[in-house]
Write a structure and sequence with these properties.
Blueprint (H helix, E strand, L loop, with lengths): L9 E3 L13 E6 L7 H11 L4 E6 L5 H13 L3 E6 L5 H8 L7 E6 L2 E2 L4 H12 L3 E4 L4 E7 L7 E7 L5 E5 H7 L11 H11 L4 E4 L5 E2 L10 H7 L2 H15 L1 E2 L3 H33 L4 H6 L9
Parallel strand pairs: 2-3, 2-5, 3-4, 7-11
Antiparallel strand pairs: 1-4, 5-10, 6-12, 7-10, 8-9, 8-13
Amino acid sequence: MIPARALPQFCIGRTGSDFFSSHKDLTVILTPFERFSSFSKAVDALYESIDIPFNVIVVEGNAPESVRRALEQREKKHKNITIIYSDHHLSIGAAINLATPHLNTKYAFIMDADVRIPAGTMTTMLQCAKEGDFGIICPDNYVVPHEIKMKSNDMSGERRTIKSLGVRTCLFMSQAAIQQIGKFDETMTPCTAGIDIRMAAEAAGISICAEMSACMERDQEELIWPIDASVHSFQWNQERIRQSFANLEKKWGIRLKMQDYSKWLERKKLDLNNSQSHFFLWTWLHAKLKKQVFKQDDMRSEGFVFSQAA
């Protein structure tokens, strides 16, 4: 393990001798998105739910040292995992771009660490890709309709509804489709990346399927743990999101109303603030217990109330 302070911009961890073996059709590309705390559980869940041979590429995105150690333990246990390290947080497009040059299977499933794959679902998606010759397959519950306005010379604009590929990354793609799209746009944020990939696929003539029998689940953890705070703030940075809306409009000639997302973005900010308040209290209690100075007088001064029996 290279210490964080000495970590180059990007580096690749140990790769097993049988990694990227030719008999496997599938590689799972796992990214943190907004939670490092879900990484270890996400890796473990892959081996419980996928019943076909597969490889794993983990793009760790500047995770804390404790998370890196946990990932490396799993890398040693399983011979089909490789880890790509970074010294800074990554956008969705940047994480995918780091992984795809190391892809040597016909298909890839690109997912966030808080996505959970029901048993048998990956087999269903692989069969769908082979039988229907689709370039991209998205689980039906991760397809999101958007009304967009296309730019025109008379400024009136054509309105159309498109189905983007979700806020959270959950895409089954053929390597051919990945190569057709080329470099994924690293300026896009969770609000715009799905639409951008959808438009890029349409421009490249890539067939897309929303698989109704493939519905992914989410990790039910609601709290944003302290180790998640920096990456959560990065992904939901308001300035980055505003700029991504402008980039999307310039790139594809479409208009989206950012105010349509405003309530949702405020909720993301509130989730982080509430979690930080929760863990501030937890840290205070933990420190009191550790120092064995958990006295009633101290706690009354902090606003705690005791019964007469105490």
